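## tool: complex_structure
## caller: assistant
## args:
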Amino acid sequence: MYKDIATPVRTKEILEKYGFSFKKSLGQNFLIDPNILRNIVSHANLTENSGAIEVGPGIGALTEHLAREAKKVVSFEIDQRLLPVLEDTLSPYDNVKIVHSDILKADVAQVIEEEMPGIEDIMVVANLPYYVTTPILMKLLNDRLPIRGFVVMMQKEVADRITAKPGTKAYGSLSIAIQFYVTAEIAMVVPKTVFMPQPNVDSAVIRLIKHENPPVKVIDEDFLFEVSRASFAQRRKTILNNLQNGLVNGKQNKELILKALEEAGIEPSRRGETLSIQEFGKLADCLYPHFCVRQ
Ligand code: SAM
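## result:
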């Protein structure tokens, strides 16, 4: 077993050797605690037959822990300055492929096909760059990748919203957009002290496991997300009020909205935050014939 990259001493050595300076704009907060890394990886339940997709390897702190557990690791890094560093730090591992790319622009499905042939169990495991957490998750979910799920670190406030249940303050359209595809739970809350440099916000690791069957079947998924976004636009307002304001031609068509709410069995005086994902699904389908502009 090689010496961990993620000890504070070794990390400092590596950064000095390469004259590396952190770019805040790229969300560069590196992990410097091997215990946290082991803990993150354990939540992914990898085996020697698994594949791991990582976003943003940094200097390879998490990558090497993944390489020790999985058959193959593919890691996407946007910052070119890190490529020679990674070549050096990850040289003991022959099962890691670094792809120099913005994850948001990468054809991840194609990379999986090329780099992970025959691997059936694939997890995304990452300490995400916080400035693009939600776009990265939504992209990887919308790409319909052949993966089991995600174990990812992010800002705690976003983790709370993603995993929130109906009736709570954190519950909103992000909870619905994510929980439509996966079951979501917080795996652990992480102190600021395990990062270099320390971020200004608290962090948490969440685990997302893809549903075998979606919690609700709908005519048009994007329309479901539009309806849920409209319903949460002003949290203090009723669902009727928010839909009137948020749907195209909603203002002129109060009667049609009331009819759809009745069909879906939802009181017009309720607030969006009380509706389950199943209720949003039903409501979206009842509104669809009158308000979906893409039909
Ligand atoms: N995995 C390392 C660790 O835990 O120490 C670094 C994590 S750091 C929070 C985020 C990493 O993502 C950085 O290496 C950063 O350069 C990279 N990154 C930022 N935006 C990216 C993007 N759009 N695509 C790929 N990598 C990105």
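## assistant note: The beta strands are 30-31, 50-55, 72-77, 96-100, 121-127, 149-155, 182-190, 195-196, 203-210. The mean pLDDT is 97. Handing back to user.
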